[in-house]
Amino acid sequence: MIKGVVGILVVWTSAVLAVNGQEHAELEQTIESRIRALAPNAETIAISETPITGLLQVQVNSEIYYASDDARYLVSGRIIDMETRVDITDQAKSGIRRSFMQDLDPTEQITFSPADAEFELLVFTDIDCGYCRKLHDQLEHICLLQMRALVVLLRNYLKD
User: Fold this and answer.
1) Which of 10, 14, 43, 70 to pair with 124, CA 20 to 30 A apart?
2) Which distant-in-sequence residues (6+ apart) come within 8 Å of 109 by Cβ?
3) Are the C-beta atoms of residues 151 and 122 closer than 8 Å to each other?
4) For the chain, how long is the longest CA-to-CA vector?
């Protein structure tokens, strides 16, 4: 008798999980199609859970948004856990930045480097930016002030 009840519970639980998994997949497809309608040029869309019931995280390219679990609302903003003071949005963006930095090709940058540098400074620069041009003019002086302990890596800043 107990084996029969346990068997029924296992089958029922498996069926509920399968339905919930299917509903979740359908919800993700609905959210993705609505995002694509708003941003047809989006290259990547990734949807994941958040610690807030009823709210999903939506990564569109390198931006983080949130969607309601009925796929009706899209929210732009930050989520901060007030108990732990952790910025949930910044954690997600940190992962995106880490991935971006790992994918950088060192052959696409200009390097100012002494032989025995202790530190690296990666600068994303824009030739049309007045502040960037001022930095370019001061790079040699900055490197000399740092007593040759600094590697400066210049990369072109590509605007979206």
Assistant:
1) 43
2) 122, 153, 154, 155
3) no
4) 84
Integer Cα distance of 64 and 87 in angstroms? 12
Instruction: Please check whether residue 66 is in contact with residue 39, taking contact to mean a CB–CB distance below 8 angstroms.
Output: no
119 exposed, middle or buried (CB, 10 Å; 0-12, 13-18, 19+)? exposed
pTM: 0.63
Residues 54-111: tens digit of each pLDDT:
999 999 998 999 999 999 999 999 999 999 999 999 999 998 888 888 888 888 877 7
Phi, psi of 97 (to 5 degrees): -65, -40
Taking residue 101's Cβ as centre, other Cβ atoms within 10 Å add up to 9
The end-to-end CA distance of the chain, in Å, is: 65
Kindly write down the DSSP assignment for every residue of 67-132, as one continuous string: EETTS--EE-S--EETTTTEEHHHHHHHHHHHHHHHT--GGGSEEE--TT-SEEEEEEE-TT-HHH
- The Cα 111–Cα 128 span in angstroms is 20
